[in-house]
Amino acid sequence: MSKSDILFKRAQESIPGGVNSPVRAFKSVGGNPIFMKKAKGAYMYDADGKQYIDYINSWGPMILGHAYGPVVEAIREKVYDSTSFGAPTELEIEMAELIKSMVPNVDLIRMVNSGTEACMSAVRLARGYTGRNKIIKFEGCYHGHADAFLVKAGSGVATFNIQNVPGVPATVSRDTLTAPYNDLQAVETLIAQNPGEIAAIIIEPVAGNMGCIPPAEGFLKGLRELCTKEGIVFIFYEVMTGFRLAAGGAQERLDIDADLVTYGKVIGAGMPVGAFGGKREIMEHIAPLGNVYQAGTLSGNPIAMIAGVTLLTELKNNPSIYTELEEKTAYLHTGLQSILSQGNTPFKINRVGSMISVHFSSEEVTDFGAAGRANNALFNQYFHYMLDNGIYLPPSAFETWFICNALTNADIDRTIEVTGSFLAGRN
Ligand SMILES: *Cc1c(COP(=O)(O)O)cnc(C)c1O
Question: CA–CA distance from 253 to each of 9, 274, 335 (Å)?
Answer without folding.
Answer: 45, 21, 24
